[in-house]
Every structure is written in structure tokens, then in C-alpha cells.
Amino acid sequence: FQQLCLQLEQAKPLTASPAPSSADMSAEAKRVFEAHDANLTGKLSGRELREALDSMKLDSTSPDAMALLRRFDADGSGTLSLSEFQQLCLQLEQAKPLTASPAPSSADMSAEAKRVFEAHDANLTGKLSGRELREA
Q: Phi/psi at 43 (nearest 5 deg)?
């Protein structure tokens, strides 16, 4: 998900994948939108957007969802309308890689965890404080 968000920010496609028809994309986006517009306002809040993204198998955090909300909230309402959500879905679909990359090995994950830990252990205690952990 973070890779897709980064790519959306940079506005460069990962692959030249064939786009689904706009009618199919619009219908699917509308279905997801309506399923997650819990309060039936015709708008998705940040929480509702995160839940919608999660349902689309795009595990997102609240900050991720809020960043996407700000990026696609064309009218500045602080929420996403159906048309704004459809635009987000279209961008996400265009940014999706054709094939899934292989899962990283446990050694790669351990090395990455160590790198992140060391980068955030500002006081070099070998432990992360609450503040350091939040920043990690």
C-alpha cells in the first residue's frame, strides 16, 4: 500500500498495465463506496476511507488514508464524494503492479528491522523509547 501511495505522490506508473473499463471501475468503486459510507452522507470520512481501502486488500493506516483523502478531496470538504473516490480508485488501479513481488526472506526482514531500529534509536541505548517507537 505504501508503495502505491508513494507512486501516486510521484505520479509515475509502476507498470503499463491495461486499465479496466471505466464502467467496470466506476461500478466497483460505487459498490465499495456505498458499503463503507456508514452514516449514509454520500461522503467518506477518513475512517470510512481507511476501511474501504482495507476491504480492497490495501492495508492502510489512518495517516495513509488521511494523506489520500487530502490528495483526492477536490472540493476541500475533508471527505471524499463518490466521484472523488472513483478518481482515487482509478489512480490506484493504474498504479497496481502486474504481478506480486516475492515475499522478502526472513534474513531480509531481520536486516531491515535492524536498520530501522538503529535509525530510530536516537540516544543509542539499544532500546526504543515511546517517542522513538512512534517515529519508527
A: -140, 150
Residue ranges of the chain with per-residue pLDDT less than 50: 12-17, 19
**pLDDT tens across 47-80, in order?**
899 898 888 887 677 788 888 889 999 999 999 9
* Closest among 107, 129, 105 to 117, alpha carbons compared: 129
Determine the Cα–Cα distance for residues 132 and 93; give it in Å rounded to an integer.
35
Strand segments, DSSP code E, in 4-128 are 43-44, 80-81
Q: Which residues, 6 or more positions from 64, have their beta carbon under 8 angstroms from its beta carbon?
A: 1, 2, 5, 50, 53
C-beta separation of 85 from 33 below 8 A: yes
Quick one: how many helices (H) and strands (E) in the chain?
A: 7, 2
62-72 and 82-95 helices, crossing angle to 10°: 110
Amino acid at 95: A
